[in-house]
Amino acid sequence: MARPAFSTQPSRAGRRLRRAILVAFLVVVAVVLVLPLTLTQQAADANLDPTTLGIDFAMNKSIVRTETTIAMFVALAAAWNLIGGLTGYAAFGNVAFFGLGAYTVGYLTDKLHLSFALALPLAPVVAAAFAGLIGLPLLRLRGHYFAIATLGTGIAVGEVIKNLDVFGGATGLFPPILRHADALFFYLMAANAGLAVLVTWLVLRSRFGYGLIAIRENEEAASVLGVNTTAYKVGAFALAAALTGLAGGIFAQWASFIDQESVFPIQYNVEMILMAIIGGAGTLFGPVAGAIVLEWLILELAGGGASAVYAQIGLGLLLAVTVIFVPRGVVDFFGGSSRLTLGYLRRTLRETSV
Amino acid sequence: MAEVLLEVRGLTAGYGAGPVLQGVDLDFRAGELLALIGANGAGKSTLLGVLSGLLRPSAGSLVFAGRDLTGARPERMVRAGMAHVPQGRRLFASLSVRQNLVLGAYLRRDREVQSDIARVVAYFPTLGDKLQRVAGTLSGGEQQMVAIGRGLMGRPKLLMIDEPSLGLAPKVVETVIEVCQSINRDGVSVLLVEQDVVVALEAADRGYVLENGRIALSGTARELQDDPAVRKAYLGV
Amino acid sequence: MTGVLELESVTKRFGGVAALTDVSFSVGEGEILGLIGPNGAGKTTLLNCISGVYRLDAGKISLQGRRIDGLPPHQVARLGIGRTFQVVKPFASMTVRENAAVGALFGSAQAHMAPKAAFAWADEVLEMVGLAPKARLTVGSLTIPDRKRLEVARALATKPRLLLLDEVMAGLNPVEVDEALEMVRRVHAGGITIVLIEHVMRVVVGVCDRVIVLHMGQFLAEGTPDEVLQDRRVVEAYLGEKYAARRHG
DSSP string spanning A212-266? Predict the structure, then answer.
């Protein structure tokens, strides 16, 4: 499913292409990062004179919301990539960590009246601790057993929380609303997404990362070469949980209302995996690219009615086509190691169909 | 001279990055026990892959029992009377020995499957009380016997066996090779692909030497055993 | 003889079936010990017990006086035991060089290097086993003998004091076996004690100082290769008459 993360040197043309892509990427990132600031500034101005700029105001707010949501999914997909892509354990219940992070912030701000700034750092801690706890037994399972067990855990955690009155029961929790903070939430989500990418980058260069990939490729061989497989798997799982929990924590305050339905949505599990796989599981930027494109599509097409149905069908087709023709993800075509040719498609088809 | 069972001409095939086989010619007479020898990477398993239909050749022809089967799919090859016993056995590890054997007769619609299981047991008596065992729990030697037995269950004209001696104790290699010879005496043509050149040439009537995707040498087993080049390259003497 | 590795009454059962019963022997410093026996005799099971993949049902295993049975595989590796697998288990998406580097990044206490040093050592090891020209290829393009070599390289990269080789010469023709024997001798010359499982008698006779024969999970015979290959019990259980005849003929 995944390419080697630490790869051989590309050709000179490959390097030039890579540099051009990097520059373009940085420009886009700069625009995306600065946009919310100017837009929310305009929004603030518009507030003074709502009659003249009312429509723009709504527009701008929706652009910022779209960007924030996309940044959130970049973090979720990149975090999933640590356990699913690098370590090869297809976790299907990462939404549990998202929900736990959200409920940590929700509980601390709503019930204990802690400030958001003090509550947020605890979200990743709670999520990671929970991952460590369930990781020890669950990571003994392999393949679809692991996938099903994590899926079950993800659902169970949401159900348990819903039935505990301390956490607001079915009513949910209400973190105090922060006004005029649209830009803040965007930058927090973007920072978390950046953190997830940075963590992946560091992991890929470390002994830890080599150990994870060795586990993915052959766990028994990894263990006799000296890789502490249990510790490494649990470590990767907890790291993914921390980043996911942080996203959940930010989301709770951003939404200023959370309940089981809003922070344990099962489809997030599928979406983050799709994003990582379509972009390129196990690679640094694959999940990022996958999350941006896919979440943008989901948001664009989710207008409701017929278009939502087409969106679902389209996503399904996209996944099928990707898994069949580009099992290593779209990112495989950049950096000069593979080119999208008929020969490539034929080869991958043959490799994956036997 | 006996009729030609399999005639291969100019066979070229590979896996994308350049052909592994480059114009292989092969003549197989009915009733022969033929040895195919060569270094690792010479193309032996690739040739077997083409003969069993797992790999389509990019050039050349393959005529089996008078029918042109160039590029035919595995299922047609089996129907025509070829059976491939792959390297590393490739048993259905979680099924019983009996189920493995029955699956070897997958394309047959007659009622003689039971008696053919008895025939396999006659060749390999050790399997007799192990028919209900899960195939994956057998020793390497017994698994090789099941793999050959499964090949026989299709009542092939030609049985192609890839490296039966791989990872087996010398005594078991001896048994397996002896059974290959008696299967051959009972009228089935056998193509033996072997790393253990000593064993292969002792058992075979004739042999082909594959080098870098080409037939470098062919002759009777005796001739090859005495050939100085073969002795140096494959026997290490 | 001072034993690097001592096995005392090692017993291993799977369900009710005894795979190893009361196996005891010791491996001397600097020795090349051959482990032979029929298929299903328990040789690979024994290697799995030593390397921590299996837990013993009874008995003791110690490395330089220290008990290692019950330790998980990565700790056994840390103490200096490297091993290969009969069915090769390469890290398929990695290059040859990266495969070897994983051994150096982890491995014994002597290895456990930082990435840069690990790759440098990986290059040396690949040189030693003759894979240096193929360092940058991915595993998929390797022939079977090369995959076996890679298996050895990866274990060597862990800087073991004891190397367990499980049928690294199966599937090689006699000439390829001779090349592989050269490699084993080079590794041994580097001061590593070796235990090897083989069915290829050319190997056993070629490099082993001493041979132990297992049969049905039990100790059957022991001696120099010549002694063992002439032992009537070994001929009966393992070699077969034809082999014995060919040897004498």
Answer: HHHHHH-HHHHHHTT--HHHHHHHHHHHHHHHHHHHHHHHHHHHS-B-HHHH--H
